[in-house]
Design goal:
binds heme C; 54% helix; 188 residues; alpha+beta; 4 strands
Protein backbone atom coordinates (compact mmCIF):
# COMPACT_ATOMS: atom_id res chain seq x y z
CA UNK A 1 0.00 0.00 0.00
CA UNK A 2 2.80 2.32 0.97
CA UNK A 3 4.57 1.51 -2.27
CA UNK A 4 1.45 2.25 -4.28
CA UNK A 5 0.97 5.58 -2.57
CA UNK A 6 4.56 6.48 -3.20
CA UNK A 7 4.26 5.56 -6.86
CA UNK A 8 1.10 7.62 -7.17
CA UNK A 9 2.77 10.56 -5.49
CA UNK A 10 5.78 10.28 -7.78
CA UNK A 11 3.54 10.12 -10.85
CA UNK A 12 1.66 13.16 -9.72
CA UNK A 13 4.88 15.05 -9.19
CA UNK A 14 6.11 14.03 -12.61
CA UNK A 15 2.92 15.12 -14.33
CA UNK A 16 2.70 18.31 -12.34
CA UNK A 17 6.23 19.07 -13.44
CA UNK A 18 5.52 18.34 -17.04
CA UNK A 19 2.49 20.56 -17.18
CA UNK A 20 4.40 23.40 -15.48
CA UNK A 21 6.98 23.10 -18.23
CA UNK A 22 4.33 22.94 -20.95
CA UNK A 23 2.64 25.97 -19.50
CA UNK A 24 5.92 27.85 -19.43
CA UNK A 25 6.57 26.98 -23.10
CA UNK A 26 3.08 28.18 -23.99
CA UNK A 27 3.59 31.50 -22.22
CA UNK A 28 7.01 31.86 -23.81
CA UNK A 29 5.61 31.18 -27.29
CA UNK A 30 3.02 33.91 -26.76
CA UNK A 31 5.76 36.31 -25.73
CA UNK A 32 7.83 35.36 -28.79
CA UNK A 33 4.82 35.99 -30.99
CA UNK A 34 4.43 39.47 -29.49
CA UNK A 35 8.11 40.18 -30.16
CA UNK A 36 7.76 39.10 -33.79
CA UNK A 37 4.67 41.24 -34.20
CA UNK A 38 6.35 44.30 -32.68
CA UNK A 39 9.51 43.90 -34.77
CA UNK A 40 7.57 43.20 -37.92
CA UNK A 41 5.32 46.25 -37.45
CA UNK A 42 8.31 48.48 -36.88
CA UNK A 43 11.03 47.12 -39.17
CA UNK A 44 9.04 45.69 -42.08
CA UNK A 45 6.77 48.70 -42.45
CA UNK A 46 9.68 51.12 -42.28
CA UNK A 47 11.61 49.16 -44.90
CA UNK A 48 8.66 48.93 -47.26
CA UNK A 49 7.58 52.58 -46.73
CA UNK A 50 10.91 54.35 -46.51
CA UNK A 51 13.66 51.90 -47.41
CA UNK A 52 16.35 49.88 -45.70
CA UNK A 53 18.10 52.85 -44.05
CA UNK A 54 14.94 53.80 -42.15
CA UNK A 55 14.60 50.19 -40.98
CA UNK A 56 18.22 50.14 -39.87
CA UNK A 57 17.76 53.40 -37.96
CA UNK A 58 14.94 51.81 -35.99
CA UNK A 59 17.06 48.73 -35.24
CA UNK A 60 20.04 50.84 -34.16
CA UNK A 61 18.25 53.50 -32.13
CA UNK A 62 15.06 51.94 -30.85
CA UNK A 63 14.89 48.15 -31.09
CA UNK A 64 16.76 47.39 -27.86
CA UNK A 65 14.63 49.69 -25.70
CA UNK A 66 11.42 48.61 -27.46
CA UNK A 67 12.27 44.98 -26.65
CA UNK A 68 12.95 45.93 -23.02
CA UNK A 69 9.62 47.75 -22.94
CA UNK A 70 7.82 44.74 -24.37
CA UNK A 71 9.56 42.49 -21.84
CA UNK A 72 8.33 44.67 -18.95
CA UNK A 73 4.80 44.70 -20.33
CA UNK A 74 4.63 40.89 -20.21
CA UNK A 75 4.22 40.87 -16.43
CA UNK A 76 6.24 40.05 -13.36
CA UNK A 77 6.86 36.37 -13.91
CA UNK A 78 8.08 36.56 -17.48
CA UNK A 79 10.80 38.39 -19.35
CA UNK A 80 12.43 38.21 -22.74
CA UNK A 81 15.64 39.20 -24.51
CA UNK A 82 17.61 38.61 -27.72
CA UNK A 83 21.14 37.20 -27.60
CA UNK A 84 23.85 36.05 -29.97
CA UNK A 85 27.33 34.52 -29.79
CA UNK A 86 28.18 36.83 -32.69
CA UNK A 87 26.47 39.83 -31.21
CA UNK A 88 26.04 43.30 -32.60
CA UNK A 89 24.92 45.03 -29.42
CA UNK A 90 27.51 44.42 -26.66
CA UNK A 91 24.61 44.01 -24.20
CA UNK A 92 23.27 41.08 -26.19
CA UNK A 93 25.99 38.54 -25.41
CA UNK A 94 24.54 35.54 -23.55
CA UNK A 95 25.45 34.76 -19.92
CA UNK A 96 27.62 31.77 -19.07
CA UNK A 97 24.84 29.20 -18.74
CA UNK A 98 23.15 30.59 -21.83
CA UNK A 99 26.30 30.28 -23.98
CA UNK A 100 26.10 26.49 -23.77
CA UNK A 101 22.62 26.37 -25.25
CA UNK A 102 23.56 28.81 -28.00
CA UNK A 103 26.53 26.56 -28.79
CA UNK A 104 24.16 23.60 -28.86
CA UNK A 105 22.12 25.34 -31.58
CA UNK A 106 25.31 25.85 -33.59
CA UNK A 107 26.33 22.23 -33.13
CA UNK A 108 22.94 21.03 -34.34
CA UNK A 109 23.27 23.32 -37.34
CA UNK A 110 26.77 22.07 -38.16
CA UNK A 111 25.52 18.49 -37.91
CA UNK A 112 22.98 19.18 -40.64
CA UNK A 113 20.19 18.26 -38.24
CA UNK A 114 16.88 20.02 -37.89
CA UNK A 115 16.82 22.70 -35.22
CA UNK A 116 14.25 22.17 -32.49
CA UNK A 117 11.66 24.93 -32.24
CA UNK A 118 12.91 25.53 -28.70
CA UNK A 119 15.15 24.23 -25.92
CA UNK A 120 13.91 24.42 -22.34
CA UNK A 121 16.27 24.78 -19.37
CA UNK A 122 15.34 24.76 -15.69
CA UNK A 123 17.87 26.94 -13.91
CA UNK A 124 19.05 26.91 -10.27
CA UNK A 125 16.51 29.57 -9.32
CA UNK A 126 13.69 27.30 -10.47
CA UNK A 127 13.03 29.42 -13.54
CA UNK A 128 12.31 28.00 -16.95
CA UNK A 129 14.42 29.45 -19.69
CA UNK A 130 13.02 28.84 -23.12
CA UNK A 131 15.47 29.34 -25.98
CA UNK A 132 13.99 29.92 -29.43
CA UNK A 133 16.62 29.82 -32.19
CA UNK A 134 16.65 32.95 -34.31
CA UNK A 135 17.61 32.12 -37.87
CA UNK A 136 18.37 34.10 -41.00
CA UNK A 137 14.89 33.21 -42.08
CA UNK A 138 14.29 35.74 -44.83
CA UNK A 139 16.27 37.75 -47.35
CA UNK A 140 15.85 40.98 -45.40
CA UNK A 141 18.12 39.73 -42.59
CA UNK A 142 21.02 39.76 -45.04
CA UNK A 143 20.61 43.46 -45.77
CA UNK A 144 21.90 44.11 -42.23
CA UNK A 145 23.67 40.87 -41.20
CA UNK A 146 24.91 39.43 -44.51
CA UNK A 147 28.07 39.82 -46.60
CA UNK A 148 29.35 43.39 -46.92
CA UNK A 149 28.68 43.61 -50.65
CA UNK A 150 24.96 43.13 -50.08
CA UNK A 151 24.70 45.80 -47.38
CA UNK A 152 23.81 49.38 -48.33
CA UNK A 153 26.82 51.62 -47.71
CA UNK A 154 24.89 54.08 -45.52
CA UNK A 155 23.56 51.19 -43.44
CA UNK A 156 27.13 49.87 -43.05
CA UNK A 157 28.31 53.27 -41.84
CA UNK A 158 25.43 53.65 -39.41
CA UNK A 159 26.07 50.19 -37.93
CA UNK A 160 29.86 50.71 -37.73
CA UNK A 161 29.48 54.03 -35.92
CA UNK A 162 27.10 52.61 -33.31
CA UNK A 163 28.73 49.18 -32.83
CA UNK A 164 32.51 49.35 -33.37
CA UNK A 165 32.86 45.69 -32.30
CA UNK A 166 30.02 44.37 -34.43
CA UNK A 167 30.27 40.61 -34.98
CA UNK A 168 26.86 40.17 -36.58
CA UNK A 169 27.97 40.18 -40.22
CA UNK A 170 28.63 37.64 -42.98
CA UNK A 171 25.68 35.47 -42.06
CA UNK A 172 24.10 33.37 -44.81
CA UNK A 173 20.47 32.39 -45.35
CA UNK A 174 19.12 29.85 -42.91
CA UNK A 175 22.03 30.20 -40.47
CA UNK A 176 21.43 30.49 -36.72
CA UNK A 177 21.84 34.17 -35.91
CA UNK A 178 21.15 33.88 -32.18
CA UNK A 179 18.22 33.20 -29.92
CA UNK A 180 15.30 34.76 -28.17
CA UNK A 181 15.36 33.73 -24.51
CA UNK A 182 12.16 33.88 -22.54
CA UNK A 183 12.47 33.41 -18.77
CA UNK A 184 9.37 32.19 -16.97
CA UNK A 185 9.30 32.17 -13.17
CA UNK A 186 7.23 29.39 -11.68
CA UNK A 187 4.20 30.71 -9.83
CA UNK A 188 4.30 29.76 -6.15
C1 LIG B 1 17.43 46.99 -41.07
C2 LIG B 1 18.55 46.29 -40.48
C3 LIG B 1 18.32 44.94 -39.84
C4 LIG B 1 17.58 43.90 -40.35
C5 LIG B 1 16.78 43.83 -41.64
C6 LIG B 1 17.74 42.82 -39.39
N1 LIG B 1 18.51 43.19 -38.34
FE1 LIG B 1 19.00 42.09 -36.72
N2 LIG B 1 19.90 43.70 -35.87
C7 LIG B 1 20.10 44.92 -36.48
C8 LIG B 1 20.70 45.83 -35.53
C9 LIG B 1 21.12 47.26 -35.79
C10 LIG B 1 20.84 45.11 -34.32
C11 LIG B 1 21.36 45.61 -32.98
C12 LIG B 1 20.17 46.13 -32.18
C13 LIG B 1 20.51 46.49 -30.75
O1 LIG B 1 21.17 47.50 -30.52
O2 LIG B 1 20.10 45.74 -29.84
C14 LIG B 1 20.31 43.78 -34.58
C15 LIG B 1 20.29 42.79 -33.63
C16 LIG B 1 19.85 41.50 -33.84
C17 LIG B 1 19.85 40.44 -32.84
C18 LIG B 1 20.23 40.60 -31.37
C19 LIG B 1 21.61 40.20 -31.02
C20 LIG B 1 22.72 41.13 -31.45
O3 LIG B 1 23.51 40.69 -32.29
O4 LIG B 1 22.81 42.28 -30.97
C21 LIG B 1 19.35 39.33 -33.46
C22 LIG B 1 19.17 37.95 -32.84
C23 LIG B 1 19.03 39.69 -34.84
N3 LIG B 1 19.34 41.01 -35.03
C24 LIG B 1 18.50 38.83 -35.78
C25 LIG B 1 18.00 39.25 -37.01
C26 LIG B 1 17.27 38.38 -37.92
C27 LIG B 1 17.03 36.89 -37.70
C28 LIG B 1 16.85 39.15 -38.97
C29 LIG B 1 15.95 38.78 -40.12
C30 LIG B 1 14.66 38.19 -39.77
C31 LIG B 1 17.36 40.50 -38.72
N4 LIG B 1 18.04 40.51 -37.53
C32 LIG B 1 17.15 41.58 -39.56
C33 LIG B 1 19.74 45.25 -37.76
C34 LIG B 1 18.90 44.50 -38.59
Amino acid sequence: MKKLLLTLLLCEMLFANESAKDLAVKEASNALHKLHEMMSTNVKTRISDKGIYAGAKFCVNESYSKIEELSKSLGENISLKRVSLKNRNPKSYPSEDEVKILEAFELIEKSNAYLPSEIVQLNNDGEYKIYFPSTMSNKSCKSCHGAQKGVDIQVQELIKSKYPNDKAIDFVSGQVRGAVIVTVKQKQ
